[in-house]
Amino acid sequence: AAEKTLILIKPDGVKRRLSGEVIKRLEQKGINIKGLKLMKLSKEKAEKHYSVHKDKPFFNDLVSYITSGPIIAILAEGNSAISVVRGLVGATDGSKASPGTIRGDFSISIDKNIIHASDSVESFNHEYPIFFNSSEILDFTYGD
Ligand code: CMP
């Protein structure tokens, strides 16, 4: 069934000019883009986005990294989009992610791992309002 997911191209992905590569992979898989913006995240928004990790030892590094430079936020939709996009993204640790996945092909680290994608409907519902308001999510069909 049609599902929405929230994708972030993290500061390392933007800096390394991998945004086109990431979008190309989403498009060639058949994922539809309904919202997209370049932005610099505030500390408050970053802490909210990563609130499930607030007690983890890496929380402060995570927040300072995701706020260190521009990111690209993408709201995408497609059949089983959450698991499909997680499959395209690959395992969290780039040094363990399979070749052929975005992290497997472009990252060798657990923190600078190019991309974030929602891991569940609950996560998506928590995440997307941090990045998009309703007027920024286009309601249209691609005709496929
Ligand atoms: P992301 O999908 O954005 O969600 C949480 C992020 O925490 C994850 O990608 C990693 O980049 C980052 N991270 C940093 N250190 C760790 C760690 N030890 N375990 C899991 N995630 C980590």
Order of helices and strands: EHHEHHEHHEH
The counted number of beta strands is: 4
Name of the CATH homologous superfamily: Nucleoside diphosphate kinase-like domain
Q: Give the C-level CATH assignment.
A: Alpha Beta
The main pleated sheet reads as:
4 strands, antiparallel
- Strand order, largest beta sheet: 2-3-1-4
Count of spatially separate domains:
1
The DSSP helix count reads: 7
Amino- and carboxy-terminal Cα gap: 14 Å
Structural class by SSE content: alpha+beta
Strand percentage lies at 15-25%
What's the CATH topology label?
Alpha-Beta Plaits
Rough outline? globular
| Bound molecule kinds, no repeats | adenosine-3',5'-cyclic-monophosphate
CATH architecture: 2-Layer Sandwich
Approximately how much helix is present in the residues?
25-40%
Residue windows where pLDDT falls under 50 for at least 5 positions: none
Describe this structure in words.
The protein starts with a strand and ends in a 13-residue tail after the last helix. The chain has seven helices and four strands; from the N terminus they run βααβααβααβα. Helices cover 39% and strands 19% of the residues. A four-stranded antiparallel sheet has the order 2-3-1-4, with helices on both faces. The chain has one domain (2-130): Nucleoside diphosphate kinase-like domain (Alpha-Beta Plaits), CATH 3.30.70. It has 144 residues and is α+β, with helices and mostly antiparallel strands. Adenosine-3',5'-cyclic-monophosphate binds at residues 53, 58, 62, 92, 110-111, 113, 116. Its cofactor is Mg(2+).
